[in-house]
Structure formats: C-alpha cells, structure tokens
Amino acid sequence: VAESFFRAAPPLRDRDRVAGDLAAFVARHAGRGGGGGRLAGVVCVTSGGTTVPLEQRCVRYIDNFSSGQRGAASTEYFLKAGYAVIFIYRRGSKQPYCRFLPEDSFVDLFELGEESDIQVPESHAAVVKTAIRNYRKAIDEGLLLKLPFTTIFEYLQLLQMVGTAMNCLGHQGMFYLAAAVSDFYVPWESMAKHKIESASGPLNMQLNQVPKMLFILRKQWAPSAFCVSFKLETDPDILLQKAEAALRKYGMNVVVANELANYKDVVVMVTSNGRTTVRRPSKEDDVEEQLIDLLVEMHSEHIMQLNQDHQTCTS
Amino acid sequence: VAESFFRAAPPLRDRDRVAGDLAAFVARHAGRGGGGGRLAGVVCVTSGGTTVPLEQRCVRYIDNFSSGQRGAASTEYFLKAGYAVIFIYRRGSKQPYCRFLPEDSFVDLFELGEESDIQVPESHAAVVKTAIRNYRKAIDEGLLLKLPFTTIFEYLQLLQMVGTAMNCLGHQGMFYLAAAVSDFYVPWESMAKHKIESASGPLNMQLNQVPKMLFILRKQWAPSAFCVSFKLETDPDILLQKAEAALRKYGMNVVVANELANYKDVVVMVTSNGRTTVRRPSKEDDVEEQLIDLLVEMHSEHIMQLNQDHQTCTS
C-alpha cells in the first residue's frame, strides 16, 4: 500500500538539495550525547497540518486544523535542552521563536523612530529581541534544519527521507510527530485535472485511507529511534483508549493524548508503564516546557538502558 | 436558499463590535469623492480563501487555494488612489504592505545590533521602512478597516454586514471581490459533531452548493455599488466564456478573468463594452497597479455619469 502511494505521488521539488542538507546535518550531529548523565540527541519534530489536494492543478484541498503552535514551542524547548532539531513544518504555520507575533500583520509590531530607525513598543521589546537572539543562535550554530511541506504527499516523502537519514543515529534519534496528518486522500492518478465545476448540483467525493506510515517508520525507516506520536480527538470519552491502541499498534515509546478543547493546557503521556498527566502551571507558561523536559529524560534513560544492554556493540 | 444558509450558520463572534466599527467607518467616509475629476470612494476588498468545515468541532475542512496576494496588493493601490478600504481577509493570508516578507519566519529579516537595537539587512531596509510608514499612515488616518474570516459562514456574514452598511454610499461604494469563495459546503446542521473516524474504510462525502451571494449583494444589499468580481479557472479554454456568463448573470460592472498558471502576470477585464487585457510590465511590478488604475477611472466615470443622469437626486 505504501509503495503504491509513493509511486503515484508527485515527486518532491528540490529532493536532491533536501537529501544533501539532511545528510550533512545528520553527519554533523552524529555522536551527540553518548556520555553519562543527561544526553542530547537529534530530534525530528513534525508540525502543522497536511493538505489533500482535490484537483491536480490545485484550487481546492482538504486541510487538517493545526496552527503549528505545539511543534514550534516544542522545537524551542528541544533546542534549549541541547538537541539538534529537524523541523518538518507546514508552510505558513507557526515558527520557533515567532509564536508571540501578532496574528496577521507584522507591521503592527513596529514603528519608525525619528531617524527612521525601526522600533518596537516598550511592551514587546524584550520578547522580540530575545526571539531574534535565540533564533539567530540556533541557525548560526547549525542546530536547526527547517523543511517545509504543504501536501500529504510532500509530508510523507520528507518523513521517509528524514527517517532513513536518521537511522544511522540509532537510539539517539527521536521522532516527535506533532503534525496533524490527513487520514483520507484522493489518489493522484484518480484526481480531477482541472477545477471541479460547480454548476451541476451537489458534489460527491470518495476519499481513500492514507497508508499508516507510523508503522513503516517504526519497522523499516528508523527502527531504533525513540518515537513519540500524538493523538488528537474532540471526544474525550474515546481519547485515552485510542492513544493506548496506537501505542501498541505502532510500537511507540510514548503517545501524547490531547483534546482539541484544551490542548494548550493539558496533555496525557501514555507509555507501556502507565499515564502521566502534564498541565501548564499558568497561562504565561507553555505545557510543552514540562512535556519536553519529561521526554528528554525518558529518551536519556532509554539510551543508557540500551547502552548497558548492548555494551559490546556501543563501546 | 440564502436565508436558510444564514439561519443555519453559527453566529459571527464579535458581531456587535464589527457592526459598530463598520457603521463608524462608513459614516466617516460618506461623501468622499462627489466633486469633479477623479473621485475617490470607499471600496470593500475581499481576499484569501474561505474554508468549509467538515466537522462542527473542526479538525478537518476543505480550503480554497489563495495566498491573498491579489487582495493585499490591490488594497495598497486603492489606498494610494485615495480610497478608504474595508479589507475582508482570511486569517493568516497576505496583508497590505507585508507582501515582501519571508514566507515563514519574520525573524529571518532581523538582526540585533551591538546595542541590542533591531536592524534590517541593508538589502531590505528601504522596503521594510516604507512598508511600516505606509501601513502606519493608513491606520492612523483611519483609511483601512480590517475584518478577518476563516469559514465560508463567517465570510458571507461579513459580506452581508458590509454590503448593507455600504448601501448608503450608493454608487460611490465599490466591491472588489477577490476572495476565493467555496462553491460547496456541508450544511452546519448535517455536519458530524466529532472528528470523523478513520478506521472504517473509504470516506464518502456529499457537499451542497453554496447559495450565489453575488446575486443577493447586487439585488438587495448594495444595488447601487460598483461591483467587480473575479473568475479563476485552471482551464484557459473556458475562462472567458465563464467570465462573460458571470457578468450577465450577476449584473457585475467588471469581471476580472484570471488563470491559475499566470494570475500574477496577466488578467482580462471583461465588461459589457468588451475586454481589456492587463499585463504587468516587468517582474518588479504588480499587475494590480494598472488594474486598480483602470478600475478607479471606470468607477469615477460611472459616478459622474450617474450624477448627470440623476442631478435632482444628488444635488
């Protein structure tokens, strides 16, 4: 199923450049961590929603709701913990260090001074300057690689490339799969070529299921990586059982369960050892701060455990 | 059909505040233009694509492709021509005076100087400063009112409010309907309450046609306004005939025809007097500059013509 999905998908633009950037990034950060105490690795963070085009020359598409807030915030905390981050994100979604921006107009944030210098109102100055400083640092130190997608086709091809590129990192690699991925799609070859005409009454559509790539990531692309996936539901009654089913089915290390109604306030980390509820302490804090802290700790223990089990392999 | 659409739609948040802002804006600018020569009026610019939710607690939705580039650029040129602009735009789409921004990360544009002052690289400094200056001027002089939408329900409610509020401006009002509006939707009352389950095979959806609100705008909400609508197609063979059909069917003053493949380079203005092709002179120019120039001229002639025809009414 997966092979036919990839065969039929339109090829990624810039595939060779992306492959080169990825190989260089992974090579630069291979061997991060590996000493005692808290270890830092390489994490692939996915963020934002994927789209499903309904026409080949795309005017209409199905989209999954996601601002990218979770992925952008988490990337900041992974960088703070010393990780190198491959950020696979939806074009136009929230970016690390830019989450505080006014929603629609960056010029709302700026004024011109008397000498035509660019000024930020006192109320925002500290936040803006810290953001510019942290972002520059991550870029200048080569700790952040950003790879954009729009469609489900682009997203899954990027995930495959990053998965196979990170395989050589073994258990020091982490996947943090926060993107909202489409469950249904229209196969490329059966898609309307031109804009669907609206004149002739109601529209009937049949959508196929997207192959479950988590399974392939786990089995083929990067089987040793520490894997964290997300389960979002609107109905709290089915959330935790679905998260536990996903944990078993795909062999995840952690499934983070969250509800649409309060996903910024509370998440539940579901593992084979039980559940841990994480709440943000106040509206000024991010729930991701404590979540990433716990995950980094778990990843670190996981690496040390595996290093002890396989001492002959790793020493 | 339209009444049942509005009855079933979820009510607009902030409806009362928006109504107040609108009434004040229109009152402030009523009577703009009306002298001899080139007249300036009030224009409602719609911009960006509308979404159609597939679930009441919305995780998935159908979206229409539109960056908002056309509407944002046109707003700048209308302001330059002296118009007051009501900008109805999709949240997150391109904004007037911010079109030059890096696509995904505003911090890519800024650096910190030695004294932690915010700096823009020399290459971008002039553009950024002009943008901040022009935007501030439009806001400070009260010439720009911005009203955001996401769903087709919000968009059509806003259009109705602006249409009826602008009716008192008579033929000095203009509508420039550049938004990409959904043709199909799922009626709110028949929509799934929770996220659609993906476990049980392919998904079948039936979508209804959105009522043609251009017709109602023209007949009821603001019958005297100068009305410009857009027709976007991917198939050039049917574009102009569809534009002419729309001109007749909805009684538009102008239909601007454009193709997805080259909408930034060339448009065709279709009127009852014939067709005018507008091309941008170079990659450094906007096709909207000449387009707005021609439309402002036509609107101005239209007003003078009507003033002559109905001298007793307007003097």
From TrEMBL, chains A, B:
It holds the Pfam family DFP. Residues 43-136, 160-290 form the DNA/pantothenate metabolism flavoprotein C-terminal domain. GO terms for biological process: coenzyme A biosynthetic process. It comes from Oryza glaberrima (African rice). This is DNA/pantothenate metabolism flavoprotein C-terminal domain-containing protein. Belongs to the PPC synthetase family. It comes from the Eukaryota. GO terms for molecular function: catalytic activity. InterPro entries: CoaB-like_sf, DNA/pantothenate-metab_flavo_C.
